[in-house]
Amino acid sequence: MNEKALFAERLKTAMLAAGYEPRPSVLEREFNLRYLGRPLTFQAVRRWLRGDSLPEQDKLQVLADWLGVEPQVLRFGEQAVQKIQENRGRWETALKGEEREVLQAYLSLPVEQRKVVREVILTFAKACSKPPGEETPG
Question: How far is CA 90 from the centre of its chain?
Fold first, then answer.
């Protein structure tokens, strides 16, 4: 199954779990009651349910809030989210206190400053990885 069809299945399942019949007319009515943008057409929401298209992020957020599911679960599925969380958990467990502190500080920097810090770290890493006997500047 492709990602659009998988999304359609998750949307139908979430609608049923929330007590709604997974029909385009129901989805159109309930979605448009909650969406602050331009109302969606019957055809647009039907494409979601049929697996012909995916909602944009703002619409996905409205669907998730309405149906009481996490947007990433609705979009990618529970297994994908669990895999990401497992990988993140392994990464966080491997970090020591000081490393975690530095990483959090780095992530809080604006993008341009992160680029500078990255270049500094890579320069140090290159300098430290030279074969023995080669002089390193400094």
Answer: 18
Q: 124 lies in which domain range?
A: 99-128
Query: Do both 58 and 122 map to the same domain?
Result: no
Tokens 């990483």 -> residue: 103
Structure tokens at 77: 């599925």
Q: How many domains in the chain? A: 2
The model's pLDDT over 73-85, given as tens digits with 9 standing for 90+, comes to 899 888 766 665 5
Task: Give the whole-angstrom CA distance, residue 28 versus residue 106.
Answer: 43
- This model's pTM is above 0.85: no
Number of other CB atoms surrounding residue 75 within 10 Å: 22
- Token reading at 85: 């969380």
